[in-house]
Design goal:
The protein has 93 residues and is an alpha+beta fold. The chain is built from 4 helices and 3 strands. A 3-stranded antiparallel sheet has the order 1-3-2. A hairpin with a 2-residue loop joins strand 2 and strand 3.
Length: 93
Amino acid sequence: MTTSPDKSGPFYWRMNMNRTHEPSLKNAVEPEWVRAEKYFELTGTPVETVRHYRKKGVWLVGKHLATVQNRLHVNIKEVDAWIKEQALQRRRA
């Protein structure tokens, strides 16, 4: 015969006092694509700058950018890689 643990006892309280019911950030999903407006919130890069990079061919549609339902999206991982490459090129120069 098994009995359930006494949830009112001090041992149970100490064992569980550090647990929270909030979701952990380490389990959060990191999106690869975000809308240009959200990219501005995250990085401070204005939407007009994103559009300028698209127009000049600096960021490529399908790699760095996409338009879905008339909304501009940015691939965070590809843009990050592009920024790192630009930083490396400037160090070499």
